[in-house]
Task: inverse folding
């Protein structure tokens, strides 16, 4: 079974600075997808960024980028120019690419609570 | 386009009762997944329905069941409630086609408290 580990329960950063959230995972599969989701106080999970395992290039979405190290099974999220609106719980998630065609099943980490200090 | 709608937002039940939660996916989406979120166990996958058929199932006891209707709306039922069933229940919808960039859209959840 796959597992996802986020070793930082809480992180804080000054507004406008850069912060990196860590995520490691364990799997025996070679093809899979990785995601970072954000959960603000509204409780709705919002996709921040995603990465295909077979793509060497790290994904970027505006101020958000990842450092994907497949051999090390590491998938960290970097937030640049942190803004107050970035404050939320951040979850790293894994999805197998070998499930039944189209099947959706995410394995989540425990989450990291990010605080932005003004 | 309306988002994923979950009802009710909050629910209080007592041990031994049963409860039904509802999820209306985004129009056109055929896949609905359910997750349980607790402070101790985090987010755990319950099951996924696609075109009225359960396509995937997590490791939960048989007290947890679900179904999907022809309009893709889904319900989740928990029978013989236990204190440990207190959690935020999230549902998510997608087209269900499995493309790598297929996005999962989440609702705001139903907060269930079992007393």
Result:
């Amino acid at each position: 079974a796959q597992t996802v580990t986020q070793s930082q329960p809480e992180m804080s950063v000054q507004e406008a600075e850069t912060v990196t959230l860590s995520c490691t995972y364990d799997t025996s599969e070679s093809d899979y997808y990785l995601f970072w989701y954000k959960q603000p106080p509204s409780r709705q999970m919002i996709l921040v960024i995603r990465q295909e395992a077979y793509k060497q290039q790290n994904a970027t979405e505006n101020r958000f980028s990842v450092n994907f190290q497949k051999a090390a099974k590491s998938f960290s999220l970097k937030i640049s120019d942190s803004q107050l609106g970035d404050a939320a719980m951040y979850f790293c998630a894994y999805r197998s690419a070998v499930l039944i065609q189209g099947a959706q099943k995410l394995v989540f980490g425990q989450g990291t609570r990010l605080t932005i200090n003004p | 386009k309306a988002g994923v709608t979950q009802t009710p937002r909050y629910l209080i039940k007592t041990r031994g009762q049963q409860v039904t939660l509802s999820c209306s996916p985004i129009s056109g989406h055929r896949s609905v997944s359910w997750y349980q979120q607790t402070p101790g166990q985090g987010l755990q996958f319950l099951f996924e329905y696609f075109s009225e058929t359960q396509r995937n199932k997590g490791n939960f006891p048989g007290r947890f069941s679900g179904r999907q209707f022809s309009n893709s709306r889904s319900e989740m039922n928990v029978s013989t409630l236990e204190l440990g069933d207190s959690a935020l229940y999230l549902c998510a919808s997608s087209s269900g086609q499995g493309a790598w960039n297929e996005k999962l859209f989440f609702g705001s959840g139903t907060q269930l408290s079992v007393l």
User: Anything to note?
Assistant: The mean pLDDT of chain A is 93. Chain A touches chain B at residues 33, 42-47, 50, 52, 91, 97, 99-111 (CB under 8 Å).
